[in-house]
Write a structure and sequence with these properties.
By secondary structure, the chain is α/β, with parallel strands linked by helices. 53% of the residues lie in helices and 8% in strands. It has a 5-stranded mixed beta sheet with strand order 8-7-6-9-10, sandwiched between helices. Strands 14, 15, 16 and 17 form a 4-stranded antiparallel beta sheet that branches. α27 links the parallel β9 and β10. α7 packs across α9, α20 packs across α36 and α21 crosses α34. The longest helix has 35 residues.
Amino acid sequence: MATQVFADEELERLREFPEIGRDELARFFTLTPADVAFVDPGRGRGPADRLGLAVALCTLPWLGFVPDKVLSAPPVAMARLAEQLGVDPTGLRSYGRRAKTRTEHLRLVAKYLGWRLPTTLELKELDEFLLARAMEHDSPTLLFRLGCEYLISARVIRPGLVTVVERVAHARAEAQRETFDRLAHEFTEARCAALDGLLITDPEIRMTRLRWLATGPVEASPAAVEAEVAKLEFLRSLGADGLDLSALPAERRRFLATVGRRLTAQALERRDPQRRYPILLTMLAQSATDVLDEVVQLFDQAISARESRAERKMRDGLRSGDVFVPGSRRYSDPAAYLLPPDKWVDQRAEFCQLVGKPADPDRALAAAADELGEALGELEGVLAAGDGLVRLDDGGDLVISPLTAEDVPAEATALKAELTEMLPFAPIVSLLIELDKRTGYLDCFTHASGKQARSPELKRNLIAVLLAHSTNLGLTRMADACGISYDVLAWTSEWYVREETLRAANLAIIDYHQRLPLIPIFGTGTLSSSDGQRFPTRGKSVTARALSRYFASEGLSTYTHVTDQHTTYGTKVIVATKREAHYVLDEILRNATDIPVTEHATDTHGVTLVNFGLFDLLGLQLSPRIRDLGKITLYRAGSRAQVEADFPHTGPLLTRKLNTDLIAEHYDDLLRLAGSLKFGHATASLLVGKLSAAGRQNALAAALKEYGALRRTIYAARYLADPAYRRKISRQLNKGESLHALKRDLLYAHEGAIRARHLEAQTEQAWCLTLATNAVVAWTTEYYGLAVESMRRAGRRIDDEILAHISPAHSENINFFGAIEVDIEGELAQLGRCASATRCSDGLPSRGALGVGGIAPSGAPSVVGAEKTTLSCVGAGRGRYSRILPGTCGRWSPSEMPKRRELVGDLQRGEGAWLAL
């Protein structure tokens, strides 16, 4: 049956009311005067019917249907409606005992709101919509959600659940047939024989060509270059470089290639030809581009390490785009990364409206000149005073005294210690289970092939895999520890844990975190920062580099983006020796959180003139903390004499004149460049790297750098004139550092050395670490909020200004090392029990198993029954690390801290082992 793509539990959930967020509550469950009149008692309706009718009235626009179990509507929504109607919310218990009443009320609501029942025509249009989406996405869950959103937008009441699910299944099957039909001209007899040949073990290389193509290099050596060139020659002998698959949407091509990389040759052989050949063909086409990029990258890397300065001019030309490789994605003609002129004409107005920039260069330069004059005026006032942190010395040189360390109030330090004592001591697994109950982030891990049926053990396996990667234990040692076989963990990791699902799960946690009461105290979410964190590596990898300042041997960097609310929304693995500035914009443009970032802070490593220009053209503000800011070149728009006359103290510091004519001449191309990034036509890191490396002969790059010089001068003047602003930027960068420290606490095994050798695996591990970090931050923020609420109820005054100095990025209340039970049913049972009204003596909710690694607190019944997996950390020669129950909330007592520090030291040195209890 088509419904088999969904588990029974998932089907049941889709029939019921979901949890409701604060925004949805305000948006859908606020009655207008006309709505109140619609359910008016003058129509002969009692309180129960009025409230039930109001629930249907608000639920239909929210969900697109009204669940049969009206009584299961979110209590907070019913309470809100009851208050607006002036009735008792408990009266709903007597509503809708007759199905006819509910049906009649739905008919009245649909007529009032202008909705209609689905007819044959509406269902046909739904089928067409789902087929178009299925050509881009194969996930049944996503297709189901998109179909429901389509029906809501068309104001068509959602038909029965099975009907929609069957149409989703039909659309997926049609998409497979459509895919084959669009590529049928490519499947000649010779081509099909060649594709089948990829699945046969080749005696020359002693593996299948499919596996050979998927195995990437691990070092930049002549042998590696030779091996990749051999792959390139093989692909070209099959005509892979000339394949035109534009008949398929890009997302369909990406999906098929992903499935092809993850399936074994035996699994592909078992697929019918209509499914097997499109998968192999798209993988072949993608391999042709990927291998070409690998060849050029290895060549570039080898030259930069070994060749002379004279021979590097060919390498620099390659990086800047002056020399390009046809058919490559990473080293293509720079013009190919920009929106075509004909498309830009249609999108120019939309882009300018989105970023708030005029299309006319004269207006843009006039506005920038006004900004520059205002900023210079602010700095002039500071320099004229002559006694501040920013001043001129006797020789007229700029002196910038460092800011004093931020004065953290003693109250904040004491309050954080008190809150830490109040919080439970939670095992990391319990924390992850609780966060899944709150957010459903584990549901974001979908099968790469689009399958949706989920076994009851899947969540358990996913948590084990996430812990294996985020703690650096690896799947082998995790399998030894937890009793889940290595094959099961490896299969789960291969098919469910990938960058796109990790991003979606991370987003679910961030969205939940943003709704917690303490969040407005931390920040607005519109300010973020980025910085690199370096990790040592073991084994050879093309991303690893020697950097004696940070690594004993070799290592890599993860470049992370952090909001002022202490959450990480972007992670990227980069080569440690590459400029971080090239990657600053990537995650900002990919940011999918509800609150858009408008200002971004970096340290000196994230600064280039190209970035200053692009940030402003995209409607964003780059706010870096620049080392030796007094030594950078500042620019003026007018003559030296005029500027010094207008600004006697500041004017002499502006040593160069802007080429505004160059900016005006290429202003439309600058907008087209920014538009190409905004609309996803090109990757920011790719363009920023090429434009930064380009010489002055590249007119577009020169104009962008000139515009960046203008924006940097405006920023520098404002930054120097306002010490409070400088302190805000430093505070934001410090938030990123605190998250780096938390990540190092998490990634403790094998001395924190990354052992994955290929970029894809390294990226997945980095995202697992990010997800675990955000889970800790969200959990800590929530319980901080509960503790503060408890203290305030007891009459304690706690100022928000003091709370703003307390970071949730700490691990004092999280047990990364002790005995951990992956007992989802037991944990959820304990959560359900404490979700009633049960509270500990200090006012916090009783944590049940969460506080003590699976042991119920004193007086609470133990949970037995569900399949469980127990992990225990054993220090070498120190015996089993016992579980702790020092208080009703499972606090860690001060006397236990030395034992914990000893254990942590053992683990970080690699002396610890994870064993099954």
